[in-house]
Every structure is written in structure tokens, then in C-alpha cells.
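Re: the 423-residue chain
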Amino acid sequence: MKRNLMIMLVLIGLACVGNVFGESITVIMPRHEMDLIGLWEKQTKEFEKSTGIKVEFIQMSWDEVATKVTTDLAAGGSSSYDVVEFDNGWVAKFAAAQWLEPMDKYASKAYLDSLLPGLVQTFSVKGVPLGIVWNNDTRFFFYNRAMLNNAKIKNPPTTWVEVLAQAKALQAAGVSKFPIAEYWNQEWALANSLAFYLYSFGNSYYDDAGHITINKPGSVEALQFMVDMLKKDKVVNPSSVTLSQEAAADLFYSGSSAFFFQGPPSMYSYANDPTKSKVVGQIEVATALPAASAAKQASLTLPEAFAIPKTAKNKAAAWKYIQYMISPEKDKERALQIGSLPLFKSLYTDAQLLKLYPYWNQFGKQAAVARPLPLVEWYDELVNTTTVALQEMLLGQKTAQAAADTIANFLDGKVVDGKVLKK
């Protein structure tokens, strides 16, 4: 009898402990590039207070998160995470592996319809959404108007020829030693940078017919242009080969560089924050992007989403977190405080936001030519091959043609939309 009573008391005690601590989830996501005030952490704490659900909130660099998420999901079994980062470059791979819960199992049609349709489509396969976007990361061309004025330059460049001419004029006028700082460290962002340069020269890794084009003259021209800006023309800061995107942005905020070709939307807000920037009031958003010609203008759209692994321990609480964080209220708060582009259609007619961000008009013009990264199952492998080859090229260990050939060799035989890529 006593033993039974003791067991009963232990079970009651455990139940009480469970009630005290409530539900818990683990969330892993990259640090938002420009969230320098910890807004995501603050909103997560507000979620905990509002719902009683405890959140283990893990934020790391994008590359660290990518390694942890893909390794964990590939291992199968029980996932370490309830909400995971879901990058646009992973859609085909994650769908093929069937790692994720379909989000229409949780999200209503009205909720999905309230989001920007392109962002929903990016993370959908055969009409089924696998993620809910958390970061509308379309990239834009920013420039320092004051620096251009000091060099007697009237308008920002619209072609790569003009970029070189203006960069040399800035150097000649003593305005900037290195007018361009790129994020060309050997990490994922370097592959993003290559995609931008390829697109801006009217090229890509391969064409719609399944022909590999990365090692053909037009594409090699883009790679050679990157090298020449760094080595021959010397308008790109030589430290760019070791700079992350954040480090390159810091040089822009300090007034060291005059151009930032592919910056996240919140870059404008931080450039005008006197606690973080020395160029307050100097930065403008261009209406056009530099390219080989006007017809070849392109920008990158690199959205990121939240997803729930099929092996997550607490899927219901995970959805509550996503729905709370990706709501019009929290989305608007992030737009107001860190200048991130909204995820919800309704916020693009919000009078308060439009008054605060009149330059969204220029964003719209650049976004009209936005393009995604290659949507293939093996994009991770392509990035690994590409970043190594590009680093060797930028360090002078390989020619542009040799680097392009290395990437082409990797692509040979890969399948895209049922077509086998061939050199």
C-alpha cells in the first residue's frame, strides 16, 4: 500500500512539474543580416510570455545553421528541432527527401493568401507549401550619394563600364581608396555573388535546353570581370576575399566604400542609424542595377522560410510559434524597427510604412528584375564546388576559365527538370 502511495505521489509530482514548465520547442534559424538590435529574440520572448510555451532559440551564422539542420534531418529518427530554417536553395532537395510537414496542414487558405504569392510559391512543391517565409530577402543596389557628389558624379552607374569609370573617379578624387567591398569569403554568400554577376552579364550556370553555359565565353566574362576589379583595376577592397556579407556592409556603413550591389532591404535603415553608421543621410537606393546592358539587369531574391520537420517532437506548438512570429503585427514591427521588407500584401499599402520608407518605390523597380538561385536538389553540392573554385580564382591560383571548367565538370550529367546537363 505504501509503495503504491509513493508511486502515485511521484506521478503527481511529475505531472505538476510538467504543468509548471509547460510545452517547449527548439527553434533554429540564422541571424537576420541586419537585426542588430535582437528583435527576433525579443519577439520570441513575447511569444513565450503570451503562450506559456518555452522556446530554446538557437541563432547562428547561416552556414552553421545549414550544417546543423541538414545533418540533423538527414540522420532521420527524432529531430533535435521543432522549427527549422528552410532556405530557398533547399526546396527541391528537402521535398525529394520528404523531410518536412506540409504547411497547409496547419495554415488556413486565408492565411497563405495574405502572404506575398511569390514567397509562398517559392517554398511550395506541386502546389503544396512546405515552409512559411520569415525573410523577404530580395537584394538591392545602394550607393553613397555624398561620395559621388564629392567626385562630381551626377548619377549612380547603370552598367559595369560605368561602375569601373566611377570607381576610378572616386579614387582619383581621393574620396575612396576602394569604392567597392564585396563578400567573397569562401562561404555560401560567395555563390550568391557569382549568381548575381552571371545574371548581370545575361548568363547562368546552364540554359533551358540543358546546355552547360558556365564555362562558355559570356559566363567566363563575368568571372573575369570579378577578378579584374580585384586584381587589375584594384577598385575592389583586397580584403573582400575574407569578408562576410556583414563585414562588407560594415565598410559601407563606415564610409569606406561607395557601392553595395546586393544589400538586404534593411541596409537602408541601418545606414541611417547614427548608433551603427557614419553615413547617415548619405545613402540612396538606385532605380536600376549595374549590368552589362540595361536588358541584362538582375537582382537576387533569396527568401528564407520556417518549416516543421516530420520528426519534430511538438508540431502543434511549432505551428503556434510560426503563426505568432509570421503575423501582420510582428511583420510590421520588424519593418518599422529594422526596415525589413514585409511578408504580407496588406503592409505594402500601410500609410505609416510608406511614409517612413518612400524609397520602397525604388525597391519595386529593382525587384521587377529579381531572379532566384538555381532550384535543384543538389544546390548544396554546387555551392561547395563553386566557392572553392572561385576562391582559387580570386586568389590567383586558377584562371577564370579554369574555375568555370571546374564548375562545368561538376554540372556535367546532373539532371534539371528531367533534362541531363551536358557540356
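The longest helix spans residues 2-21.
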